[in-house]
Amino acid sequence: SQQGEEDPQALSIQEGENATMNCSYKTSINNLQWYRQNSGRGLVHLILIRSNEREKHSGRLRVTLDTSKKSSSLLITASRAADTASYFCATVVQGGSEKLVFGKGTKLTVNP
Amino acid sequence: EPEVTQTPSHQVTQMGQEVILRCVPISNHLYFYWYRQILGQKVEFLVSFYNNEISEKSEIFDDQFSVERPDGSNFTLKIRSTKLEDSAMYFCAIFGGLARREQYFGPGTRLTVT
Strand pairing of B109-113 and B10-13? Predict the structure, then answer.
């Protein structure tokens, strides 16, 4: 089964606008982590939210988690051209080895 | 954020050849992960390695793959006989952060099998 499906697959916005990306998953989780990846580069850890948390902030990032709906959202406020990247959610499944299960990602383009 | 380096950054090899990818965390870690990402696809788990033993491996991690910690600091992923479909970015990851539950990734090795 697919775990960690993001939508939209692609998002194009203007600088200064907010960007919202969603992630759904299927199994019970310990935590959910969001990553950013610039084209052809490594994965940068953005934020981790535990299964008993509902919302978390870090700078311009806001992450929510709804375990009843098995979904999470990542909001980037006041976007900048430098935010252009792919964003992935990854879940750590309960009872597992703490491996990350990634979604397919959302490709965000912020136009100057 | 814990620092992880990987070498080489890019490796080109011929089908059937052996390759060794290296991961070097700056500080001492017991838990390591390897992931791969085929171009344009999602990141996939390969193997987790704890205290010098494999703790979990995926279906991708077949007999052609092996992991080692040869000298207590370097952490290697070996592919014995590469196939065209092994072409991908390979990332190692370690735990870090305040709760030590965040996984931090190295910059990756781009493997191209021709």
Answer: parallel
- Residues of chain A contacting B42 with CB distance shorter than 8 Å: 88, 102-105
Q: Check if the beta carbon of residue A46 is closer than 8 Å to that of residue A35.
A: yes
Closest residue, chain B, to A50 (C-alpha): B101
- Strand partners for A57: A62
Locate tokens 């912020």: which residue? A110
How many Å apart are CA B100 and CA B96, to the nearest integer? 4
- Distance from the Cα of B112 to chain A's closest Cα (Å) equals 13
pLDDT digits (tens, 9 = 90+) for B77-111: 999 999 999 999 999 998 766 566 788 899 999 99
- Residues whose CB falls within 8 Å of the CB of residue A79, separated by 6 or more in sequence, listed in order: A13, A15, A16, A17, A18, A19, A60, A108, A110
- pLDDT at position A1 is 34
The C-alpha atoms of residue B37 and residue B44 are separated, in whole angstroms, by 6
Cβ-Cβ contacts under 8 Å, A98 against chain B: 31, 48, 95, 101, 103
Taking the Cβ of residue B48 and every Cβ of chain A, the question of whether any pair is shorter than 8 Å is answered with: yes
Structure tokens at A42: 């490594």
